[in-house]
Amino acid sequence: MTVLGSGEAADLVKAKSVLLESNGSRFQHGPEALRAALVDLHDFWLSSRCASLGISADSGVSLVAVGALGRRELCPWSDLDLVLLHDGHKEIDTVAEQLWYPMWDAGIGLDHSVRTPGQAVQIATTDLKAAFGLLELRHIAGDAELTDKVRAAVRQAWRAGIRSRFDEIADTTAERWRRNGDVAHRIEPDLKNGHGGLRDVQLVDALAAAQLVDRPSAEVSSGRTLLLDVRTELHRLSGRARDVLRAQDADEIASTMDVGDRFDLARALSGAARAVAFSAEVGLRQARNALPRRGLAALRRAPVRRPLDSGVVEHGGEVTLARDASASKDPALVLRVAATAARTGMPISAGTLHRLADTAPELRTPWPRAALGELLSLLGTGQGMVEVIESLDRTGLWGRLFPEWGAVRDLPPRDRSHVWTVDRHLVEVCAQAARLTTRVKRPDLLLLGALLHDIGKGRGGDHSEVGESLARQVGERLGLREADVVLLGAVVRHHLLLPHTATRRDLDDPATVTRVLETLGHSELLVELLDALAEADSLGTGPGVWSPWRRTLIQELSARCRSALTGAPFVEPGPPEESAAEMVAALEADGSPQVRFASDGDVASVTLALPDTRAALSATAGVLALHSLQVHTAESAVLHDAVVQEFAVTPRFGRLPDPALVRADLIKVLSGGMQLADALARKERDYAPSTPEVERTAPPRVLWFDDEATGAVVLELRATDRIGLLHHVTSALERSDVDLRWARVETLGSSVVDAFGVAGSPDTDTRRRVERELLAVAAGRGRDAAPPA
């Protein structure tokens, strides 16, 4: 390591650079060791610099670190947060300049201040962010007694003023969570500011410093270490201060940390973040209840215990156990507590959760009837159950009820349309299904099917087939009748049948309905349950998935199946959305394409109305790729002599583009004013890997499905996704003189399943020619494939 000179900040920068470079070698430090080395390096340089400036033990001046350096959590590109304390030193401004200026000149990120003890206490009582930092101050150099004096005064002021500041703490925390989302569920989480991130660990520490809650548990401390380790590697890899873990960085970080791939890392992060988030939520509730009461509030009677259900009472705004309640004697008690909390909107007290975790036995098989009733009551509360089940899961109670849950707990999604981990997705879908229970004859089976529909994931094999076996296993344990166990298994086995058929087959073909009914054993009840589950599943996946087109197609297929079973006439549903007709009217009046963006969370919806030309879909797909938009789903159909398209997209980098720019480029492409192929080739080169990669993708496939009644044909392409692929595929179809009636596109992780309704009945030679063209394009060898980088 470079030897540090007598206070030159350039020496610090060089030494840090050498440390980071050595960390990139095969003898690299682990992230924790790297942080420790960085802290020691900065402590040594700062103490040496202070000594050269005369800041000694009896000088009445001390240098303290707050923030990352104060907590010994210094990541490679964290700023230095320093406070120069003094007791009235006359030359303090000169000393401060001599300390700060060399660091500024060397380009070191620095947040600094100069305070007397009184000023430090005053700023801690008026500025919440400063208070959190000063609670963690650590002595670096100079007068240690002065540092201890300030530390004690700040903590005393913090404890004395916590009551008046608690609402501000709770409000700013809730706003931070809303703004940055959940670390556990975001595809690209904010490790520092997100719900369950490092700031939440600091929050619990601050509440503990106010003597309102206990220090973080071992599980939270372990979660904090993992979050810090990932953030450290993110800084090292990116070469700058970053808190958001991007998907493209996660694989390398996972490899460096020896935790598998990015999905293994995401699963570990999810578990850590959920433990931290749960601790912060419980800590805020406990702190509010533990706040010292003063004035008239101190004269009021303590909260009474209000009965809510058998063995369940409210106390201080939380759901807790009655004094004589016993989980060992009442098998349904755990679920009754949970159902009551979900129904009332009150949280279960931490003490009750721990008491139940310690005393509740596993339910015998089959479950007592009362326990099944309480489970269905819980599931039927909708969104109220989400946080309740989360609290049961974090304390081990949910896994005791459903041992099958372990394989999906914290399991990350494989594509960006899913915004939740698999276990949270199951709960969210169940919450959505609770809104649809009046639409079905068996609401109990709808709720259980929603809770279990993806339970087969994380085990290998087809998750629907694996899930059917597990669902039957659960149904038997719950005490369902044999016929209901079979029906529950069928709901899980076929939960994707209606969405996949509706979005990839010609619904006008009677054979489509026949195949669905034969698969489902001509069960009207099963069709009804799967229809409702398809809607709940889409709504519980993420924004933009339950698109108007998807809703219309699935409802039409379901209605056709019911009509075939009952003999009632089929009534075709109306247009998918009124706004589509409005855009078509605007297109007819204006004569140019109409573009509309709608953003809801991570996934945005892009709706377009264009003149009905053969090149409409390829032009739109190319322009979206040109603006770095990744397409997750796409639907295209003719409405009133116009082509209406709807895409679910996310920006690969940055934010969504300006719709006006997208519309302008689309007009240029359709009018011939832009050579889309050349522009897109340049964009594809930007995304091409810098070094050749080993071929790890499955070969593309083209499948043909004939619709006997209408004579139309469905062409399906299955391939590995890449930027611009949809444009290349549709261009290839246009060159082959294929007349598309409709298109439905879906991206599943790194794979695509693109279905196209082809007018007429292409002969064998035409099909072979189209198939060769598509396979070449999908493999990157076609006429429109990107030039090599």
Describe this structure in words.
52% of the residues lie in helices and 13% in strands. With 789 residues, the protein is α+β, with helices and mostly antiparallel strands. It has 4 domains: 9-162, Tetracycline Repressor, domain 2 (Orthogonal Bundle); 181-290, no CATH class; 306-566, cca-adding enzyme, domain 2, CATH 1.10.3090; 578-778, no CATH class. The strands form 3 sheets. An 8-stranded antiparallel beta sheet has the order 8-9-11-10-14-15-13-12. A 4-stranded mixed beta sheet has the order 3-2-1-4, with helices on both faces.
List the domain count as a whole number: 4
Give the radius of gyration.
31 Å
Order of strands, main sheet, comes to 8-9-11-10-14-15-13-12
Briefly note the CATH topology name of the largest domain.
cca-adding enzyme, domain 2
Biggest sheet details = 8 strands, antiparallel
Question: Helix share of residues?
Answer: 40-55%
Total helical segments: 30
Tell me the fraction of residues in β-strands, as a range.
5-15%
CATH architecture of the largest domain, please? Orthogonal Bundle
Structural class: alpha+beta
Strand runs, count: 15
> Quick one: CATH class of the largest domain?
Mainly Alpha
Low-confidence stretches: 689-696
Average of pLDDT: 87
Ends distance: 39 Å
Net shape = globular
Catalytic activity: [protein-PII]-uridylyl-L-tyrosine + H2O = [protein-PII]-L-tyrosine + UMP + H(+); [protein-PII]-L-tyrosine + UTP = [protein-PII]-uridylyl-L-tyrosine + diphosphate
EC number: 2.7.7.59, 3.1.4.-
Pfam family, one: GlnD_UR_UTase
Keywords: Hydrolase, Magnesium, Multifunctional enzyme, Nucleotidyltransferase, Transferase
